[in-house]
Design brief:
Blueprint: H1 4-14, H2 46-62, E1 71-75, H3 81-90, E2 94-99, H4 102-112, E3 117-120, E4 133-139, H5 148-158, E5 159-172, H6 177-184, H7 186-189, H8 198-208, E6 210-217, H9 223-231, H10 238-248, E7 252-261
Parallel strand pairs: 1-2, 1-4, 2-3, 4-5
Antiparallel strand pairs: 5-7, 6-7
Helix pairs in contact: 2-3, 5-8, 9-10
């Protein structure tokens, strides 16, 4: 469990620091990106970086098989650029964006006005009634959740029977990996991020009542592109460059995890 200092640092990243404004994330989404191809022999453009982040959203939300009658929840919506993309491209009946940061939600409302339904709340204690949603997704937020078992239970609670979950972030590949990852990645060592073993999260989902848990590794389409982008920005320090090393050493990978709530 992270201490108060780690939680404060996490809050500051999305509050006063405004991580989403950094060139590292192209001032738009806040994710590593899904790179269907990585430009070779030239620099990646800012537009290409932004498209990689939008592509990750499409990858995750596509796993939900959204219907026009669906009520959908995004957990960890940030400034809601991805929430707007989901509403516009996938066209569910309703879509709610949930985030713990009032500062992020204020930025989101400044950008999107009243277009989106945005709520402040904790992913481990969601402010919704049981059986409120048909689909739930989360794009690169779960690495901050201090208890993925509690998140899995809450996700199952707010989903209707037969509802679907789709989530993407990085995970440790084995039970031993987090110790080595902490030596490479400062935010893991500080417990701003949690490198949870992927098998443990799958067990959490099953324990919470999910079935048909499917894990897809997309590291090949994430880490090289992100590393190439980081190398050409001002943020080419050990944090940014060590992710690819961690992947190549088999310590971490990036996964899309889908599951269905049991009837």
């Amino acid at each position: 469990m992270a201490d108060g200092g780690a939680a404060a640092k996490r809050a500051a990243m999305y509050g006063e620091v405004d991580l989403g404004s950094f060139e590292l994330f192209s001032g738009n989404f806040i994710n590593y990106g899904y790179w269907e191809s990585v430009p070779l022999g030239r620099e990646i453009t800012l537009e290409e970086r932004t498209r990689s982040q939008a592509a990750l959203y499409r990858k995750v939300v596509s796993g939900l098989e959204v219907k026009k009658s669906d009520a959908v929840l995004e957990v960890g919506c940030g400034i809601a650029v991805g929430t707007e993309l989901t509403l516009r491209e996938f066209r569910p009946a309703s879509l709610v964006g949930l985030d713990f940061s009032d500062a992020q939600l204020a930025r989101a409302r400044a950008v999107h006005g009243d277009l989106l339904d945005l709520r402040e709340g904790d992913a481990l204690k969601m402010p919704f009634e049981d059986n409120s949603f048909d689909k739930l997704y989360s794009v690169e937020a779960a690495q901050h959740f201090e208890d993925l078992g509690a998140f899995a239970a809450e996700a199952h609670r707010v989903l209707r029977p037969g509802g679907r979950l789709s989530l993407a972030t990085f995970f440790a590949t084995t039970e031993e990996s987090p110790r080595e990852l902490a030596k490479l990645i400062e935010t893991i060592d500080d417990e701003i991020d949690f490198a949870v073993p992927i098998k443990r999260f799958c067990a959490d989902l099953c324990d919470a009542g999910f079935a048909e848990v499917n894990v897809e590794s997309i590291g090949d389409s994430v880490w090289l592109g992100f590393d190439t982008w980081v190398a050409q920005t001002r943020y080419h320090d050990s944090w940014g460059r060590n992710w690819l090393e961690a992947y190549r050493r088999g310590l971490a990978d990036y996964f899309v995890v889908t599951a269905s709530a049991k009837n």
